[in-house]
Amino acid sequence: MNSLPIGYRFGLVLLALLAGSPWLPPWLLFMLTIAAANGLVVLGCMLFYRAGLVSFGQALYFCAGAYTTGLVTNLLGVIDVLLLLGLSGLAGGLLAYLVGFLLARYRGIFFGLLSMAFSMILYGVLTKSESLGSTDGFNVPAFTLLGFEPDQPQVRFTLLAVAVAVIWLVSLVTDRFLRSPYGPLLVAIHDNEIRTEYMGASAKNTVHLVYVAAGILAGMGGCIGATAVGHIDPTMAYWTTSGEFVFITIMAGVGSVVAPFLGALVFGIIYTIAFSESPNTWQMVLGASLIAVILLLPNGLWSLLAKRKGAQA
Amino acid sequence: MSQTVLHAKGLEKRFGAVVAATEINVEVPEGACLGLIGTNGAGKTTFVNMITGYLKPDEGRITFGSVDITGKAPREITRLGVCRSFQIPQLYNSMTALENLEAAFGIVLLNSASGGWFVSPRTPVPGYGAPIRELAEQALERFELTAYRDKVTRVLPGGVRKVLDIAMAMAVQPKILLLDEPTSGVSAEEKFGIMDMVMGVVREAGTTVLFVEHDMEVVARHADRVLAFYDGRIIADGKPDEALNHEQVLKHIVGHTQHATTGQ
Amino acid sequence: MEDLMFILMDGINFAAWLFLAAVGLTLIYGVMKILNVAHGSFYAMGAYVAASTLGFWFDNNMPPFLSYVALLVAAFVAGFIVGPIIERVLLKPQYDRDEHLILLITYGLFLILEDVLKLIWGVDPYFVSQPYELVGSFELGDMIYPSYYLLMAGLALAVGLGLMLLLNRTHFGRMLVSVIHDREISSAMGINVGRMFAITFGLGVSLAALAGAFTAPTVSVTPGMGVEVIVLSFAVVVTGGLGSLPGVALAAVMMGIVRAICVFYAPELELFVIYSIMALVLTFRPRGLFSIAEARKI
Fold it and tell me: What is the ipTM of this complex?
């Protein structure tokens, strides 16, 4: 009744996507997979964006997940993608749990910048770490799915299928979470934290909770990103990577759990087109798009679709 | 007749060289309705702030029932059963009146035994017997706010915001309710009506009330006991007749031309 | 002892650079409550403008020791042209919105400017080291240091003192302080807040450009040189306390010296150390080293 309609609709769209994908060119499959990876991260960002918080350091968990995948595959020989997803998510979540003790007390710009500091600390550690390949990073070997090793032509499709399945399931769970009293609580924290505290709720614990959830999601996103690209390096922790996630979060808006994937897709399309058209102006195109969205669609791209449907998803 | 539900002993609060409150000793029996009067800066709000956790007393203890609540965080104190309204109404300005109350009852549900990550908003709130939306509608009705149900609180008039603020505080079904200047900013002709209605609802629920007030007529009308503050101390504590006519109270707070009629 | 001297010199130099790079950012935040992500782009703009200016200067055999003045003038001219235009056109209409949205607009601006700089100046690096070489070097103990170190330190001091004088001794400065504390009341008292904003933004951009301009002779001016400046400036400004002039100075000195120590003994920790200081300071002083007091809310 609640999450089912949007869940079914989203699921159908994704199914259609998968059905059509054998006919899609590899670069498009790749872009879709990256969009799913980014979408996962942004789903997490959306949770604390509802509480009015913007993190400029989600790349920390994205990178942690990516490096977990890279290390586990290379050092322990574990290459089952589902297992990797789980481990990367766990790594992201654990790190977020630790960082969250400090970070959950902050609001506004401080939250954003302190989280950025942590991601830059990781970046600093990784770039100087010879054993981890420093600025070059290292490669991620091929993955298997439940023992099944996809052949070359099937690899991209298989990963996309996994990514899409994950983001669908996670969206359902997130939707359920936001429809519980936690949804309004997040908005309440943003609107009037004093009142919220005096109603007996703990803003700090709630923020900590969603921050850990976002860490898990970003870690999983990092796993998919690393597997799709086949390579990891410290730039995954750089502030510009976090900037992209924030970009997509704003573009998507908080209207629905479907919005992050949508926003990531639009971002991917703009990026791909802009970059191929003119490598020296793709940033300008991206920057102009962001400003356009902020000025014209303050509630993100989702508000366009939501208006047409005339309902809240 | 009833036991002491709130006990403040030897409270003291200083801000640098300024003594905001000193030697505050108050025992509040269950079901009482206490009026706190005094000039600005006399210590009434400091007292309320110490009880509700906004300020930590430098000295002294506050006990709620058998629990020591001195220096506890506001949310802990609220969960124990002591809630407050604010002089400047603290509402969720981006939400409607209904949504404000739904958020309040939502928090109650989350804090309760059946609260959890994925609890559905249709779950009855433990101890209240109805789901969030129903409770919110009931609260609106009780406080005569139904007309404002779907209006965003940012645009509501001052008196309405005040009442909504109190309705929010009552959502947690507190044992003790502290009202910080409930009629300040409310127009003269509305004052008594609003206060009568609010007090009616609150007293019906059996809540013990402490309210800070500047209007002596409101105090005389509703309080069964008056606490007068001056210069950080309590200078009178007793029935309204006695306290309001107390020599020191007349001198510092009420003024000698008391019982000035306002043509009401 | 030699080592200590070396660390000190290196530290002071980096501290001076950090201060110059970050001071414009804290000024803009203090007055306008905007965290300008495009700050790094303006820094880069200053470097590129310097490259062109110095190219022109030395190609036309202008007096070499006046090149420093040329740098100063070029930075401020660029800053006061570009700054107010951007502020009035892009930022002004958005002042009543959420602080995050304005920040993201400046992020979009940063992306745009990165490419604009590429379009104007191309992607090849510029080398304009004449001002650096001109002042030669000096000896301290057994070590030789570039005299440019002293120039940068001197410039940082001059900028710091100049701003302090501006804020405390001039009429304009006092109006600025008023706006820093409360925009609405300042406006109600007759201060033209809009004009203050435009001038402040121009000044902030000019200071960023100044930092870039005087750094240009020490590096190769390339695209993307502003990207790291943004995060570093953020770190310094937040550690010192958003909007605080003494704060950014103290934070710059702290970070400069500690980093110099780290680089000397454990170079792997270089990047780690600055952000760790920021995280550490914020843990114990959530609003940074110095912050403007906030009034009671209820």
Answer: 0.89
